[in-house]
Inverse folding.
């Protein structure tokens, strides 16, 4: 199954273990990597950013980090980016800097804008974790259009992602919380088969489904409040144009910390 899972421990007394290969990176002269690989906000929301870090022991002379901006949907009128010239200067003695994407609000129902920032191969140091060019070489920013009508569906298809893989999908009904117009309960966030999938033990089928409450804020940010002590909740965003919730969940069911991403699409 997924190699990462062999080092997970379930906090309720269930144990799984296995020998784990040790991966060592030889950083050589150093490398450059992106710390945050994705972010989203509404077009009238707060700026988004990612940190660019140097994997070096020293930075005596400063370094200029080149990056490319790729617009996957929308156009350049939907945002500004800092630095605007595609070069992030990290001064001598410092080891990180910020690339910031600021959304521009308009009055058009023109869908979401998706911008990808990629570290350029032309940089003086190799890119990605360990300089291998495989992970943390870029970040994707999504600006959710706030001009589409907000129509919450009664049920959603939920795709679940963890450990770099996709877990079993499921469907959930959104049950309105009485006295509110922005809260709904769900019987399962990561799905009734997630724990069985994560541990590789079919005996956990249907166990620990992660029920809770979804709260949709005015700026389209989303909070998930879990119903159990181990269901520590999460945050995310809502896209009205897609009728889609994107939420990152935390958990305390396993003693190893990890997050689970869920994408809920109205059906």
């Amino acid at each position: 199954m997924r190699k990462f899972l062999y080092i997970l421990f379930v906090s309720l007394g269930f144990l799984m273990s296995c020998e784990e290969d040790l991966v060592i990176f030889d950083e050589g002269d150093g490398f450059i990597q992106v710390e945050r690989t994705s972010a989203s906000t509404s077009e009238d929301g707060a700026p988004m950013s990612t940190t660019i870090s140097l994997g070096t022991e020293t930075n005596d002379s400063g370094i200029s980090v080149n990056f490319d901006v790729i617009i996957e949907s929308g156009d350049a009128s939907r945002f500004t980016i800092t630095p605007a010239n595609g070069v992030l200067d990290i001064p001598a003695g410092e080891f990180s800097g910020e690339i910031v994407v600021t959304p521009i609000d308009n009055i058009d129902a023109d869908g979401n804008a998706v911008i990808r920032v990629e570290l350029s191969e032309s940089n003086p140091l190799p890119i990605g974790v360990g300089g291998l060019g495989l992970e943390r070489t870029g970040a994707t920013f999504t600006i959710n259009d706030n001009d589409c009508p907000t129509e919450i569906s009664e049920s959603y298809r939920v795709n679940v992602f963890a450990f770099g893989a996709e877990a079993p999908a499921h469907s959930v009904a959104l049950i309105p919380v009485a006295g509110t117009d922005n809260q709904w309960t769900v019987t399962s966030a990561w799905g009734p088969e997630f724990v069985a999938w994560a541990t590789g033990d079919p005996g956990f089928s249907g166990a620990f489904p992660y029920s809770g409450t979804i709260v949709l804020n005015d700026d389209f940010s989303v909070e998930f409040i879990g119903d159990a002590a181990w269901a520590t909740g999460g945050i995310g965003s809502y896209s009205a144009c897609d009728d889609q919730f994107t939420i990152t969940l935390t958990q305390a069911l396993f003693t190893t910390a990890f997050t689970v991403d869920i994408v809920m699409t109205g059906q």
